[in-house]
Q: What sequence folds into this?
């Protein structure tokens, strides 16, 4: 008696799923702008990377660009349309932004933990962080974050200024300390009434 052949495996009947194509982005002076594509807008809509432009492109910060480049989500090209590796992009970004690597370590760590992290220059902080599952525009950020090198020192004046920023924006203050191995430890500072 011959055995009945079952249905073919999905891999045999359907073409293998190809990975999503990388989104092309142009690095012009101190900005990175993606191509005008559904994939780029999806990156914004799903994970809130960058900000949408009127042309339907997404403008990314240098830190977001570094992260997405390392993750293989975007391909970065310079003004001459030459591809940039993550390493060459890092060198260029470090020339533009002071303290880039320390800030990037904190950004990367928070994103890898599932938080949405955005710049907070208008608040006088490096970053604002939204609780897991919360997108900007849906609710307010929970923390303002100041990345620091573990070996650096803060004066009481600097510490007080950071605390005032958090208090005036009604957010919790996080200090992200980056050690020599690029690991990040967070210190949360809150006002307490005895």
A:
């Amino acid at each position: 008696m011959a055995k009945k052949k079952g249905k073919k495996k999905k891999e045999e009947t359907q073409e293998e799923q190809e990975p999503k194509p990388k989104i092309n982005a142009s690095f012009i002076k101190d900005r990175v702008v993606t191509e005008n594509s559904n994939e780029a807008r999806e990156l914004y809509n799903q994970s809130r990377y960058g900000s949408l432009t009127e042309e339907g492109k997404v403008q990314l910060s240098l830190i977001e660009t570094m992260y997405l480049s390392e993750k293989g989500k975007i391909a970065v090209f310079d003004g001459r349309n030459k591809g940039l590796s993550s390493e060459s992009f890092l060198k260029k970004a470090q020339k533009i932004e002071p303290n880039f690597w320390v800030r990037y370590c904190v950004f990367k760590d928070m994103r890898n933990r599932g938080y949405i992290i955005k710049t907070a220059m208008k608040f006088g902080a490096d970053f604002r962080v939204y609780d897991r599952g919360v997108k900007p525009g849906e609710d307010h950020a929970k923390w303002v974050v100041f990345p620091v090198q573990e070996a650096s020192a803060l004066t009481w004046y600097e510490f007080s200024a950071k605390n005032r920023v958090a208090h005036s924006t009604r957010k919790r203050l996080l200090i992200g300390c980056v050690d020599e191995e690029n690991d990040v430890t967070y210190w949360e500072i809150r006002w307490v009434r005895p």
The domain at 98-194 is CATH 3.40.1350.10 (Trna Endonuclease; Chain: A, domain 1). Residues 1-18 have pLDDT under 50 and may be disordered.
